[in-house]
Write a structure and sequence with these properties.
The chain is mostly beta strands. It contains 1 helix and 10 strands, in the order αββββββββββ.
Length: 187
């Protein structure tokens, strides 16, 4: 990551945290601080397993859509009337299939408009920096997209896809997808 990008990231994160503390005292009650947490199961759409020759004398391509691991995410930020949310995101993804542990960190923007009396359509975009622990120089710009449904109690189920910003094998970008459940606490 270039020095300029790191400075920009630190500046944005500092502004988010400053704005959050400012909003608690001076901005009208439409703005509230939030805490969010998600847990997900990972599916790996581009497993690094190699093709192999089986006993029936032909090449077999291993499945590229396998149960791969788990992920956890934490978010702190602010919300406007519970439907527009901006926050700082920290995560941990443990991909057993690819023997990879990644730690994404970045900013998030979420939209959760009401689609019924007690149901919200939930969408989130996260952009930031990602590092693979123990894989050498495997770092990159992280992009994460979520879509799901959120209940009146602020519990959501969602599907996601994430581009980790680096390659594990050859020139194939390392991506993960999965299903998850999460919740948000509004102060």
């Amino acid at each position: 990551m270039s020095n300029f990008n790191m400075r920009l990231f630190v500046l944005i994160a500092s502004a988010l945290f400053s704005f959050s503390s400012y909003s608690q005292e001076y901005i009208d009650k439409n703005w509230k601080p939030i805490l969010g947490a998600d847990i997900s199961i990972l599916f790996n759409p581009n497993s690094i397993d190699n093709p192999y020759f089986n006993s029936q004398n032909h090449w077999v391509e291993p499945t590229k859509f396998v149960l791969a691991g788990i992920a956890a995410q934490y978010e702190y930020g602010i919300t406007y009337k519970e439907w527009f949310r901006v926050g700082a995101h920290l995560g941990l993804q443990i991909n057993i299939a690819d023997k990879t542990v990644t730690t994404p960190i970045g900013g998030s923007i979420s939209l959760a408009p009401l689609i019924g009396e007690d149901t919200r359509l939930y969408g989130k975009f996260i952009a930031g920096w990602n590092t693979a622990i123990g894989k050498g120089n495997k770092n990159g710009m992280y992009q994460h997209y979520q879509i799901g449904i959120e209940s009146q109690e602020s519990i959501r189920i969602f599907a996601f896809i994430a581009d980790h910003g680096f390659s594990l094998k050859q020139h194939t970008p390392y991506t993960t997808m999965g299903l998850g459940i999460g919740g948000t606490v509004f102060d």
